[in-house]
Amino acid sequence: MSAADREAELAQPHNNDSPVEHIVVNSEKDSMSIDKENGTITSDGEEPTEDEKRTLRHIAENLPVSAWLVAVVELCERFTYYGMSGMFQNYVMRPLDGSQGRGALGMGHQGATGLTTFFQFWCYVTPIIGAIVADQYLGKYKTIVWFCGVYLIGLLILVCTSIPVALEHGAGLGGFVVAILVIGLGTGGIKSNVAPLIADQYKRKKMALKTTPKGERVIIDPALTIQRIYMIFYGCINLGSLSLLATPYMELYIGFWSGFLLCLCMFATGTMVLIFGRKYYVVRPPQGSIITDAFKALWIMVKNRNMDAPKPSWQAEHRGVQSMPWNDHFIDELKRALVACRVFAFYPIYWVVYGQFSSNFVTQAGQMEGHGIPNDLMQNFDPISIIVFIPLLETLVYPLMRRLKIPFRPITRISLGFVVASLAMMYAAIVQHLIYSAGPCYGHPGCAASVVDGTAMGNHVHIAIQTPAYVFIGISEIFASVSGLEYAYTKAPPSMKSFVQSMYLLTNAFGSALAEALTPAAFDPAIMWMFAALACASFTCGIIFWLVFHHLNSQEDDMNALDADDDLQAETVAPHATEPVDAVDLAQHKH
């Protein structure tokens, strides 16, 4: 309905200066209100006109209860993942010397970096398995539950093989390898599904008009709500990662096994929340052969060198094909998903940078004077910075930018994330230079001159100087990682949310593979130059990314609007994954 169709007499005041940014919308039922400025009656819940989309303020809705429950599950899983993997570097690097908190496997710096990097790689390859299981067979919810069971088995193996008696009898290395393989399979199955599951809890697909209690007309924008969902989701991830405040001290004063046991208990709690909260979740059923059909359609695109070639209407017009196992709308959705996958191609460089905070940054902290602070405790400044900056951005910066009509679309945010990540690497290179410039060991930290009572005390540089590197990494995550999650969800077809999410996560695996290739450079003094090279690479990628993809910002609303047409397509065109679509009947139907 246009504004002209709603003209009527003025009846209530209008205020364009309302400070309200996030409005709680409890009902989508229409209610009539009158706009003073335009002299028109508006119905809350109606779709805005193009002019209203340009001129009215856009807002986000609050999250439904079910979304918060999914966020709690993710918090518990990330508590486990980070609390456990944050100890891996010391667990693998340092030898067992009678004090359980000081080491276990004794494989040295390169061995530890290699194994922890492999674990990261494995954790981001396995989401493909979870995505296929979810999208084709079990659905997201059931897949998460089953892979939680796998995760628990891996944690149990890790706990049992890390107790002192098991380490003394040589079970540590074998148990660790088996545990990270099983845990990686479990976390992969969860990660590809929990991010789309939380966004599935939000049902609105189209923009809608709303009048605030102060009389201001605003537009409820689903894209902003999805952005907000993933900001909160990422905040919960980093709240969970604060487990690193506890596990390093448990490692130091009790033993590695105690930290692993805490992680096991926390994950079991999250699994219980998932199971007992079942009735609250919005659960979408699997779509049958969706992944198989997607690859068939991609092959037709490649073979015909035409993105529209798999459409039933195109096949009927050019090939005389009578039926296809999908409709035109499915191909439009698949093309949108391919746009997202192109955007993700730059992410491996970012993940190489990001992975430094849990590997080489930990080693770097161990080369400085700790003053009673465990070297792997410093990792907590990454999630702490995220927890601090997310509310600031969500409640102050982003609303102010929207009021000032300053667009801050996903492509722009991702580019900025790459640039900020480069600052983290440059700062790390400077810190490494300071370490090499200080005694007593200078360019060879950990030498005999620094050993006191059997422990290397580090060069004379305070460990706290490392803090800004973690803060820069955290800020970069808010822009690059959160926007990547958002982009993976909004650009994926409804039936392929988990699979496209797994493609995004797979870029992390490629990043880990690149980091694995850099492992030979993880020694003193070459590591300083590795940090500097990563800074240059991340900055360059951020600039190139913007130049290549910034045009997609202007297409954002149009691509997001495809989801809003799903119900109509299901009614007017044959649904996907039920029966073949008659291509001749669809020849004249253009999406």
TrEMBL record:
<feature type="transmembrane region" description="Helical">
    <location>
        <begin position="337"/>
        <end position="354"/>
    </location>
</feature>
<dbReference type="Pfam" id="PF00854">
    <property type="entry name" value="PTR2"/>
</dbReference>
<dbReference type="InterPro" id="IPR000109">
    <property type="entry name" value="POT_fam"/>
</dbReference>
<feature type="transmembrane region" description="Helical">
    <location>
        <begin position="229"/>
        <end position="250"/>
    </location>
</feature>
<keyword id="KW-0472">Membrane</keyword>
<feature type="transmembrane region" description="Helical">
    <location>
        <begin position="256"/>
        <end position="277"/>
    </location>
</feature>
<feature type="transmembrane region" description="Helical">
    <location>
        <begin position="413"/>
        <end position="435"/>
    </location>
</feature>
<feature type="transmembrane region" description="Helical">
    <location>
        <begin position="384"/>
        <end position="401"/>
    </location>
</feature>
<keyword id="KW-0813">Transport</keyword>
<feature type="transmembrane region" description="Helical">
    <location>
        <begin position="469"/>
        <end position="490"/>
    </location>
</feature>
<dbReference type="GO" id="GO:0005886">
    <property type="term" value="C:plasma membrane"/>
</dbReference>
<dbReference type="InterPro" id="IPR036259">
    <property type="entry name" value="MFS_trans_sf"/>
</dbReference>
<keyword id="KW-1133">Transmembrane helix</keyword>
<feature type="transmembrane region" description="Helical">
    <location>
        <begin position="529"/>
        <end position="549"/>
    </location>
</feature>
<feature type="compositionally biased region" description="Basic and acidic residues">
    <location>
        <begin position="27"/>
        <end position="38"/>
    </location>
</feature>
<feature type="transmembrane region" description="Helical">
    <location>
        <begin position="502"/>
        <end position="523"/>
    </location>
</feature>
<keyword id="KW-0812">Transmembrane</keyword>
<comment type="similarity">
    <text>Belongs to the major facilitator superfamily. Proton-dependent oligopeptide transporter (POT/PTR) (TC 2.A.17) family.</text>
</comment>
<protein>
    <submittedName>
        <fullName>Uncharacterized protein</fullName>
    </submittedName>
</protein>
<feature type="region of interest" description="Disordered">
    <location>
        <begin position="1"/>
        <end position="51"/>
    </location>
</feature>
<feature type="transmembrane region" description="Helical">
    <location>
        <begin position="144"/>
        <end position="167"/>
    </location>
</feature>
<dbReference type="GO" id="GO:0071916">
    <property type="term" value="F:dipeptide transmembrane transporter activity"/>
</dbReference>
<feature type="transmembrane region" description="Helical">
    <location>
        <begin position="173"/>
        <end position="199"/>
    </location>
</feature>
